[in-house]
Structure formats: C-alpha cells, structure tokens
Records
---
Amino acid sequence: MTQNLQVRSLSDETHRALKARAAREGRSLSELVREELDRMAARPSRRELLDRISGRGHPRMSEPLADAVRRMRDRAA
C-alpha cells in the first residue's frame, strides 16, 4: 500500500530548485523527492549513528596520535 505525504511551507526557492533538478534529470518532482526520501529512510539517523559510534568504545593506540602523524610525515618526505 502506498502512502501520500504533503509538505507544507516549502519555500518557492526550494520548490523551484527541486523542480529544476528533476527536469535536468528527466524525472518528475514526485520521483525525485520519493527517491531521496527512500534513501533517507534507509540510512541511520544522526542520533543512531552517534549511538553506534559511542558503543564501539575508544580505539587503543600503540603510540600517541601526534607521534604517529609525525612518523607518517617523515616517511612521506
């Protein structure tokens, strides 16, 4: 079953920009927005992403980060 979504208070500028992008890509505005919303729904939210990252803990480094950066710069030179 498909659902409809109405977006209120969309600025004229945003509407024109999206409509122009859809036209350049040979798609309708509805197709463009639907595909973008599908992509958005498939990605984790910012909060979910931050929770995942914080759940990983801190990496253990064998040397201080500044020393590692210096060592890598010296190798590249």
Note: The longest helix spans residues 29-42.
---
Amino acid sequence: MKRSISWLAVVGLVVAFAGPAHAEDEDDKEDVVNPEEDKKPSESTEDKKPPPPTTTAPETTPKADEPSEGRTGLRPAAKSLGLGFGYTFPSDVQLINTVSARIVWSDKLIFEPLFELSFGSDSASVGGMDTSDSATTMAVGTEIRYQMWSRRRTGLSMVMGAGVAYTKDNPDGDDNNTSTLGFGLSWGVGLDLWIWKDWGLSFTLTNPFFSYGSTTQQAPGDDVTNSSTFFGLVWDDSQVRFMLHSYF
C-alpha cells in the first residue's frame, strides 16, 4: 500500500511540472513571427514614403564664343535697314553731299547698294534758234563691309566695292552723241562707332583697285572709241567718307 502511494506521488509531480512547460511552449509558438511576413511592406508604410525629389535643370551659361549683351547691345540686328547721311571729302562741311542705305545681312556683313537711273535735259534759244542737250545715266553697284574686329562700341571692317555705269550725252544735232561705259572695283577699311542703340558713326577710306572705261563718240564718218584700263594695289585715300546711320 505504501509503494502504490509513492508511485502515485511521483506521477503527480511529473504531471504538475509538465503542464506549465507545455503551456510555455505554446506561448513561444504564438510569439514567433514569420520573417517573410515582416518583409512585406504594409499599406501604412507605403503611404508614409516621402515623394521623389524634384530635379531642376541646371542653369545654362553663355558659351565663350557667344557675344554678350555688352558687346552687341548697341549693334543693329540682322536683316535691318540703315539710312544715313554725311560727307565725302574733300567737301564743304556746311553742305551734306552724301546719302546712303545699308542692309545688315548678319552681325559681320553689311551691304551698301548704289543705284541710279536718271535723265536730264537743257535747252536754250539764241537768235531765234533753239538748241537742246540731254543726258541719260544708269548705274548699279554695291559696297560690302565685312567686320574683322570688334571691341565694345567700335568695329573695324574690310570694305570692298564694285559697280558699273553707263551714260549717254545727246546734244542738239545729228551724229554727235557720246556714250560712256565704265566698270570699277575698289577696296579700303572702315571704322564704326556705335553711339546709341541702332545708331552708328562710320569713317570709311577707299582706294581704286581695278577700273575699265570706254567712250564712243559719234562722227559723220566712223565712230571714235577710246578705252582705258587701270589695275593696282594703291593706298592713297582717294575717297574719304564720314557718315551717320540709323537702323530699323
């Protein structure tokens, strides 16, 4: 009887200790979290993500070869038209004797065209006899200014010119007309000073380079023709001009 009581006591102690241990194991199983589930982002985490950073385009700086405003702010824009007046020396400074128009083709190239189509006549009456004399002139040409150097308000240009002209003089009477045909090339330099926006002063020196002229004089018999040709690299400032232009 005493042995059976002792075995029952041992079994009871084992059951008593095994019950709490089993309960602790169950609690530990419930506390274990699946690591894969932790890796999954929750909706609240996604909502709290900061917005992507905004990128701004870097400020562009003008290249070294691009003209700055201080260098070209006073100069006329391309495809502008300039009208001007001035003097061709030697001249009386009290009398303006030159007008011109300039076409700005680009920031370095300017054309200064020349065109003439004119007709004039004179008449006189002496002792009841009337006499008349008429003249016709046609001419076309251009001067080209190519800027080689510039600094702030000033510019230095190479100047080249070309032109052709035809004149006919018809005095009273028969077989006495005189016609002249001429062609010429010139070269020189020009200095420009931009005093205000789209306003410029220019000082131009030109020299002859090539010229050809032919004159035909009518006569009762055969016509008389004289021609002349010139070619040379000359610097004698044969023509000096000082002008003021306004560009539009």
Note: The chain is about 20% helix and 55% strand.
